Amino acid sequence: MSAPPGVPAPPASTDPAGQRVTVVGLGRFGGGLGVTRWLCEQGARVTVSDKAPAEELAESVRLLEGLDVSLHLGAHDERDFTEADLLVVSPAVPPHAPPLKLASAAGVPRTTEINLFLWRCPAPVVGITGTVGKSTTTAMIGEVLSRRMPTHVGGNIGRSLLGDLPRIAPDHAVVLELSSFQLEALPEVARSPHVALVTNFAPNHLDRHVTAAAYADAKKNLFRFQQPGDVLILNAADAPTAAWAAEAPEGVRVEHFDPAAEPFELAVVGAHNQANAQAAWAVARQFGIDRDTGASALAGFPGLPHRLQFVAERGGVRYYNDSKCTTPEGAVVALASFPPRTAVFIVGGYDKGVGFDELGAALAERAKAVIALGATAERILLAVDVHRAGTDPPTARAADLSAAVRLAAAHAGPGDAVALSPACASYDQFVNYEQRGAEFVRFVEETP
Predict the structure, then answer these.
(1) Which residue ranges make up each domain of the chain?
(2) 49: which strand partners?
(3) pLDDT in tens, 365-379
(4) Strands, DSSP E only, in 251-386?
(5) Does residue 11 carry a pLDDT above 70?
(6) For domain 309-445, which CATH number applies: 3.90.700.10, 3.30.460.20, 3.90.190.20, 3.40.50.300?
(7) Hey, what's the torsion of the CAs at 374, 183, 152, 255, to 10 degrees?
């Protein structure tokens, strides 16, 4: 692909063969594996730099076996940043991290896995972002589009699609979930997806973005570089994002989806999943897919792990794993999926600097009991206490997730539910939300 008019071809568009490339951030669960493998296949001389020690990255390191890669783990070597030809930076690495500043001072260009992919992808790209619901909506879109054409799903939801490039044709579709961290770097290539969907917006990741305005600005890169004929789809019921229509580039068609439109028959519970389905249907229409085809695909969608995933029934109590819920808004949505005073909620985790007043009010009004843990436990319980009348719902602080499950089970009775819906990231006690969810499932399975 050539660069858009007036935009110089970025370093990501050059042939990496023979270049000294530093991949910054391997990740405990292999977030940098896909791009590392692809760079090696292109003939680059690759160094992987991660400040985490090798023992914490053991599984990721094992998956690199057989590749001609230099591993510099446990600390960053300045030379990997100042003497490289190109950096490929993980979304988890803050853009102003000291090693990246060194690279900038040395004139070393940098890019990301997503940018490398977008510059080379021959198929139309659907990009999805939002504060809550983007993973499920992405998966739903992939399910529907695959009924009509070969469809490739990736980005923040799963594996890298760089290795799939030889198999992606112009008549295929690519569906990418894109986080604010991934979207921050899109100005480097000045490209946005052909179809851009924003599910909703609420302040999040303020530990990284600092202000809600900066967080929103990163999200807007999803459509900021769209071209005439592209499509921007916004949530008609979400005031912050509905107003973004005025910022669409000239010639971009703006549409709105209605979360309360004619419902679809779904296997997954909750009004929020109906909203996700309406968003997916709005995208599917752009590809000429009829409603019957869309409805059939959505009816068969089983849901995603860690997203209000039914785990088991113990003593008449149903347990749900919603570990992917890392925002207060997401927990409020999950709470609304259960009748009032029938769900015990386990909340709390890493502190991203967001407020919990709305969550506290919702828990005070609807939860049967609230069990809090982690760095944000006291803040959440205080928010509940401010809004509750009398002693309902009862609240408790747990030392860890195992204790939280035991406390939740003690408060629940037959016909009730227990949901791990933390409203916070997992970093204070777990590697990521997947590990947190897996531990919750294990503790539930041990519950009598």
Answers:
(1) 16-111, 115-299, 309-445
(2) 24, 72
(3) 999 999 999 999 999
(4) 253-257, 309-314, 317-321, 343-347, 369-372
(5) no
(6) 3.90.190.20
(7) 110
